[in-house]
Structures are given as structure tokens and as C-alpha cells.
Amino acid sequence: YSPGSTEHPFVDSRFYTTVNMVHTMEAILGLPPMNQNDAYAPVMAPLFSGPGAQPPFTADWRNRDNGLIYQMNPGKAPGGAQSAKMDFSRPDAVNTALLNRILWRDIKGNAPMPAPRHTIFPAKTRDDDDD
Tens digits of per-residue pLDDT, 106-125? Predict the structure, then answer.
């Protein structure tokens, strides 16, 4: 809904999934479905129908340059030097216990950090395929 639009706001309460969005993009681009999943998923046509005379979206740039949105923690923040040395270039490369301590201290200050809990749910019965 655009504030300058002459149309009334529209609420679509149907359940959509990623597959619906993929099929809708295929339809918009004139591409055939990739598989049966998206071929049978209903397109999101009610969201993209109408006269097409809606005014363009006008972005609200009030907070873009005032430093509120894109503000980074200073390097002198607690744990800043330690986290600057961490490898975030790939998943699970960071020592999670150390990172959790840094984040906890940044948010909670000197409040004691709870011990991590690890839960394992063992199988209740043994099946034929178990060794």
C-alpha cells in the first residue's frame, strides 16, 4: 500500500510459501516451472494484479545518514579486540563459547553468565537397523 495511492489497502490472508514465490517469479519472467512442486503451487496473483498505476514507493531516508542504523560498535568496546581477531568468513569457524561470553558481557555487563546447557535425547527403543 502506497500512501499516495487511490486504491484501498489490500490484505491477503492466504498461506504462501517460498514455492509460491518461486512460481510467481517464474510466471512474471515467463519461465517454465523448474519442477512439479512449483508447477502446482498457486501463483501469488492477487498481490500483483490491478491497473498497475500505483505511484512509486518513496523511501524514508531520515535515518540513513544520522548513524543510528549503520552504527558499528567501537573497537574499544568490551571484547572488541577479541572479536576483531575472529574468523567470520565461514560458518562455525569461531569459538562459540568465547563469542557467547563477549556478547553476554556487551549486553548484560558484569552479570554472571549461565553455564551452557546441552541436551541429548537418546532413543527410547532399539530398532532392527541399530548396531
Answer: 889 899 999 888 777 777 77
Averaged pLDDT for residues 65-87: 78
Is the pLDDT score of 67 beyond 90? Answer: no
All three cell numbers of 40 = 502446482
How far is the C-alpha of 85 from the C-alpha of 79, rounded, in Å? 10
pLDDT of residue 129: 67
